[in-house]
Amino acid sequence: MEISVLQKNNLITMLLILVCADLLFSGFEANALPYDYTASIECLETPLKPLHGGGIILNPELNMGLKGWQAFGDAKIEQRELAGNKFVAVHARNRPTDSISQKLYLQQETLYSFSAWIQVSEGNEAVAAVFKSGTGFKHGGAVVAESKCWSMLKGGFTSDATGPAELYFESKNTSIEIWVDSISLQPFTTEEWASHQDQNIKKVRKAKVRIQAIDKLGNPLSNATITIQQQQNKPGFPIGCAINKNILTNTPYQKWFTSRFTVTTFEDEMKWYSTEVSPGHEDYTSADALLSFAKQHNIAVRGHNVLWDDPKYQPGWLYSLSPAELSNAVHKRIVSVMSRYTGQLIAWDVVNENLHFSFFENKLGDQATPNFYRLAHAVDWSVPLFLNEYNTIEDSRDGAATPAKYLQKLRQIQGLTRNAKMGIGLESHFGTPNLAYMRASLDTLGATGLPIWLTELDVLSGPNQAKYLEQILMEAYSHPKVDGIVIWAAWKPQGCYRMCLTDNNFNNLATGNVADNLLRQWRSRAVSGLTDTRGFFEATLFHGDYEINITHPSSSAHSFVVVSTNESLQSPLTFQVSV
């Protein structure tokens, strides 16, 4: 973590060392089976070794012939070898499910991390892993496999029953062969899964601070009193909630919101159908007012959204336009909204739900989306441009928006906008969360090195809504590749989109209590103590901005602010506040 100092007064010389070192763990955490966050998004000549040594998979590298494996359906299978690498090849497929399989025995309420390396005989095709049990089918994940190189499929699921199961693979194109190697299925208990989260929070969301007090001559000051207080609404990890224009005239809503969140997204006020109800008559009044409110309270804003590919959510006058007229209208929209708010936002959702819908592509061609991003980058190159999509981490059954499909679209965009700052936007509209799949999907997307945000997090109404919200927030916050979260719970008198955090009097619902409890949990409490004989005082703190006060009998009180600006620095950083 890199830090800068805002000095208030010069009364005592201070030396501050912020150490980004792995913390030691004790008890269960130290003994828990570790989770492997490794994921590859490159197509390799040879597959890597199976994660976790293959876990409970028998003969994971196919080095023992076909032991443990059998044909599934009418497929023919055989062991093959290329350049010293052995694998299983599935051919003579007549149905999508014709493949290989292995019999397994699953444990109830156990989370399973799955991975395999896949190749197809020609072209590129989506290949999915499926687990069949007495209670139904679990989709373990999918990958867009290529010919002549190996692609990693990473996924997972939670078993809802104890009993026998069978792993198999499927692909809609029955004319291709499916090649499989380096298969792994690793079980984790819920306690082990939680320990991974706790360890990651300590490792990637916290840092060890070491402060040394010295006098004007550079001599250590022992028994100096150090007090460290995290600044209100200055956490290192942004967690926010959507708002809408109702907040502008509702003081209780304002107080409730501003006391909790550091980032927001406007629910509808910046969308095209809100700002240009009739052609050529733009009205940004509500968006401007919300942005002014956010600035007043030092709340960062994500721009949402420039374009929405769902045909249901377009300005009414757009449907009758010719392709040429539509192209001009889209160009004007991108330039208008983005130039208006350039330099005032932290990100843009440029295209919304592009993997599920294709309103603009159907009218303007397959290169419409890359062209949108190229223009967006030309208008505002200062912040990341996100592709915002749902079901990429929520639902393994949705083949349209798998991490592999998301990456495929991302590469298409990057092919035309190589210099653009891109970001991965995951809407995160959950039903029952599949935490193993969610984590694996974040692993895969995180391999891009791009910023990842959960942009519209909510949970379907039900008796377990609050419980599921807590599980998802914990999984997202603890994942080392996630950079921020926005909860999709903008308040309206008639109710929220799918999930509210408060009632109409702004008393917390169970979901609001979950958010509050975690926000408190992920903040550092005030720390106070005395420096040792060498003038040192140590504390472990969550990333964020802190006010540090020091007093010593030999001098007046001194205080300064430590501002977190870069949490990726791994070597200790030393600086001095001089008198």
From TrEMBL:
Start and end of every GH10 domain?
222-518
Task: Please list the GO terms describing molecular function.
Answer: endo-1,4-beta-xylanase activity
Is Hydrolase given among the entry's keywords? Answer: yes
GO BP term (any one): xylan catabolic process
Signal peptide location in the record? 1-26
Mind telling me which SUPFAM superfamilies this protein's record contains? (Trans)glycosidases, Galactose-binding domain-like
What protein is this chain from? Answer: Endo-1,4-beta-xylanase 5-like
Annotated organism of origin: Gossypium hirsutum (Upland cotton)
Q: Which gene encodes it?
A: LOC107908837
